[in-house]
Amino acid sequence: MCVVLQGMESCTVSALSCFIAFCLLVCLIGFIFADADFTLLWASLTGQRPERKLKGLVVWITGASSGIGEELAYQLAKCGSRLILSARREDELHRVKRHCLETSELKDEDILVLPLDLLERRSHETKTKTVIGYFGHIDILINNGGRSQRSLFLETSVDVCQALMELNFFGTVSLTKQVLPHMTQRGRGSIVTVSSLFGLTAAPLATGASASKHALQGFFNSLRTELTDYPKILISTVCPGPVQSQIAKNAFTAEINKPPPTVGHLKRMPTDRCVRLMLVGISNGVKEMWISQQPMLLLYYTWQYAPTFAWSVSDRLGRKWVQNFKAGRDADSANLTKPKTS
Ligand SMILES: NC(=O)c1ccc[n+]([C@@H]2O[C@H](COP(=O)([O-])OP(=O)(O)OC[C@H]3O[C@@H](n4cnc5c(N)ncnc54)[C@H](O)[C@@H]3O)[C@@H](O)[C@H]2O)c1
């Protein structure tokens, strides 16, 4: 009897260990192939669908003429959101609007094309009044417009660092300053700001851009803590790794108005996947979203738990990137490979 019970016990224990090992294996595989932080992935598996949550909402997108902003417009239009499309180039915004109308059930009056320069801060009050005059309210502001950088700090004019702060940080803060009082008055709304993984960590050739995104992280994290009396106002920051867009082509270089010498071919996440995850995050009240393919995401987790080890890995990767850049080669494509020799 005793021997039988012992046998059953050891069977149960080994079944339990197999089950735990299986769960750990599933977690490990999931972790290796994950392209977002766990809260966001959980929301995408079990949370509210954007098609349900965002239908009919009024969403203002800055930087809607290309890349992530353009894709946001397309996916939000399919969700049935009413849109305000802003960027500097009006013709490009009309192109995006036409495509939204062709691929969704929205009507012409559901999309307002509103040219806006983030650098022209004095215009932001009037632009906000125009939007409220047109739709009556704003449910979601997506602060997406911005630029990056491809230059070594030693060769870069401080004017470039200032220009990056003016655009990415002050332009965003200025528009938020106009829209937020409207949301606090209504007691609800979302302000979603596209930061970057290098707003949390760092990247070579992007000192000024990284600083401007770090500033955004600090600003919006602090703002969130000030708005605890408004539980229905969401302040969310999005931290993407490399995503397919025009970002490298439009990057600042060592001097203002000097185009990048080469356009990188860094392995980038498809824009539609990044935007889908963003919309899932917005629909489920996710306050910070990390969105990136591996190994960038893995490196970022390492940064959280073993920063010095992560710095030694990123120093190695960064050195190759800088060597290629100095040699005038495509720096982006070499960030995870050996320096190019031809
Ligand atoms: N693509 C990436 O790899 C990546 C990674 C992390 C963060 N981001 C961030 O995502 C956001 C969108 O960039 P993207 O990748 O789609 O690049 P993009 O160059 O394709 O789009 C940038 C958008 O910002 C607009 N813009 C630039 N200057 C402006 C100004 N003065 N006023 C108004 N609009 C202006 C552009 O017209 C364009 O519509 C940016 O804030 C960028 O920093 C991008």
Automatic annotation (TrEMBL):
Q: Cite the entry's keywords alphabetically.
A: Membrane, Transmembrane, Transmembrane helix
Q: What InterPro entries does the record tag this protein with?
A: NAD(P)-bd_dom_sf, SDR_fam, SDR_family_member_7
By its UniProt entry, which SUPFAM superfamilies does this protein fall under?
A: NAD(P)-binding Rossmann-fold domains
Say yes or no: keyword Nucleotide-binding present: no
Which residues span the membrane?
Answer: 12-34
- Respond yes or no to whether keyword Cytoplasm is given for this record: no
The organism sits in which domain of life? Eukaryota
The UniProt similarity line reads: Belongs to the short-chain dehydrogenases/reductases (SDR) family.
Q: Name the chain's protein.
A: Dehydrogenase/reductase (SDR family) member 7
